[in-house]
Design a protein that fits this description.
alpha/beta; At1g16640 B3 domain; disordered N terminus
């Protein structure tokens, strides 16, 4: 994990955009990466690679609630070192979102911050 002083930086953005390219589409359908925007999310939403190991962290891992434009909510934390949303479920996770939205190269996924642990996610078509 990064140095704690890096987490103290203030993030002035209230939304991030995740452009979908031909190169990252396959990966994003399976592992929804937020690595380039990790400071947008609270540090305590980052859990251990194996969630059973969260007890070893110096903080309690909190869950993010991401309301999608499809009417369902993704409850997830972020996997340490890989910085992907843990919930990849085909019924309630990022795989469902990517599939039902038929995400294609040129699309942009937008995640808006409502507060530290609540977000909205929608797609802008390319």
């Amino acid at each position: 994990m990064t140095n704690n002083s890096e987490w103290n930086q203030i993030v002035f953005r209230d939304a991030i955009e995740l452009p979908i390219t031909r190169q990252n589409l396959f990966f994003m359908q399976r592992q929804f990466s937020v690595a380039n925007n990790i400071k947008f999310f609270p540090y305590d939403a980052i859990g251990a690679m194996n969630p059973a190991d969260n007890y070893m962290l110096s903080y309690r891992v909190k869950t993010l609630m991401i309301e999608t434009d499809l009417g369902f909510t993704i409850e997830t934390d972020i996997v340490d070192k890989r910085y992907v949303f843990r919930n990849r479920s085909h019924s309630k996770g990022t795989a469902r979102y990517m599939n039902e939205k038929n995400i294609q190269p040129g699309d942009v996924i937008v995640i808006e911050k409502i507060d530290a642990y609540n977000y909205k996610m929608y797609t802008k078509r390319g």
